[in-house]
Amino acid sequence: MDAHQASDPTTTTILMFPWLGYGHLSAYLELSKALSSRKNFLIYFCSTPVNLDSIKPKLIPSPSIQFVELHLPSSPEFPPHLHTTNALPLHLTPALHQAFAAAAPLFETILKTLSPHLLIYDCFQSWAPRLASSLNIPAINFNTSGTSLISYAFHSVHRPGSKFPISDFVLHNHWNSKYNSTLPEHAHCVKEAFFECLNTSRDVILINSFKEVEGEYMDYLSLLLKKKVIPVGPLVYEPNEKDEEDEDYSRIKNWLDKKEALSTVLASLGSESYASEEEKEEIVKGLVESGANFIWVERINQKEDEEQQIKRRELLEKGGERAMVVKGWAPQGKILKHGSIGGFVSHCGWNSVLESTVSGVPIIGVPLFGDQPFNAGVVEEAGIGVEAKRDPDGKIQRQEVAKLIKEVVVEKSREEIRMRVREMSEIVKRRGDEKIEELLTQISRLSNIS
């Protein structure tokens, strides 16, 4: 910690405290960068050691951003390398939430030691703003998901049985059955914590979004919460030019350089894929049948048996020279910016939606889990992409995936989508760091520093 900088009375100190998921960390890191680029800000970024190690490559060393380690309780069944959602087996998710909450006393010590002017916290640790309040430290919630699901969730609580007034978007029965089913105890506790995190935020809520896409949802959420909703997005990682020398991207770039402009699709289902083998198979078949060039990002799944891997490899081989497979992690931001990319087959995780929008690439949505069906609905409403609709039984249809890729990328019969997403891209690029001006005003008021 830079003691001189922290003790400077003109310096505003902010403690960033994201949830342990990669998408959350990434958005919090980008907000930290935006704030630290302004004069007289010192950002403390608090997470588990394994998470901090994963994001260090995305940060040029700066005295204005300092990492603070939070050590969760460990055990032989739950060692420190699992203190992240990245590659975490699903059955250990409740254990991760429990360990995170059990670290509250350690976090209280961090708050007392650093004594920041402001805590910016995420959506699952409702104990964090309570601790901050007990120490007279103002705390505001920064939510890294889209606004549509949040406003829909609050509507269902505050105005049950009434029509959602913002959108005619209708969930497929496949999703309705999941959202309306009785939640297990762990999921119910997480939901309650989520609502409490929003309700206890001091006067405002920060959202990683922008008004051109979700303005009406923000206004409605503000009405329900009786708090100001401040958009600070899109906050996405912008690759550095010198990073392009990395070996993984060089191989992908060499392949893409041989393809025609806008002729290729990136297909990636997120850093924490919830796709079943059947769903992956249908998407791959849709890619092959579309006739487009494509990059398929294959997440490494330790539980997947060899027979399933061989079957999918055989399917991918049918793509011939049109197909490239990237195993494990892929430099998604760089790939989306390449001139050969004409579409993005995405699970519609919110970070991926924002990355695609910033890059000006149309989205072909195949939502799989959580907020993704709502995000896909927003993508269609905003005219920046299309959703591959499921069949009446809730199954992904290869014919639908292939048809939409053909329309957007091969036949280019949906150019209004490309024009719209490029328009959005230009808007956010012109705005630049102006997106955090309203936040800066709030920070000044809350921290009593002008």
Any descriptors?
450 residues, alpha/beta, Rossmann fold, 2 domains, six-stranded parallel beta sheet, 13 strands, 47% helix, 14% strand
Molecular structure report:
The chain has 450 residues and is α/β, with parallel strands linked by helices. 47% of the residues lie in helices and 14% in strands. Helix 13 links the parallel strand 9 and strand 10. Helix 7 packs parallel to helix 10, helix 12 packs parallel to helix 17 and helix 15 crosses helix 18. The chain is globular.
> Terminal Cα separation, in Å?
24 Å
Mean pLDDT figure? 88
CATH domain fold name of the largest domain? Rossmann fold
Count of domain modules: 2
Number of strands: 13
Shape: globular
Could you give a short account of the major beta sheet? 7 strands, parallel
> How much helix, percentage-wise, in residues?
40-55%
Beta percentage is 5-15%
Give, in spatial order, the strands making up the sheet with the most strands: 3-2-1-4-5-6-7
Please report the first level of CATH classification, the CATH class of the largest domain. Answer: Alpha Beta
Q: Measured on Cα atoms, how large is the radius of gyration?
A: 22 Å
Q: Looking at this structure, what is the CATH superfamily of the largest domain?
A: Glycogen Phosphorylase B
GO biological process, one term: carbohydrate derivative metabolic process
Domain Glycosyltransferase N-terminal: 13-235
Protein name: Beta-D-glucosyl crocetin beta-1,6-glucosyltransferase-like
Keywords: Transferase
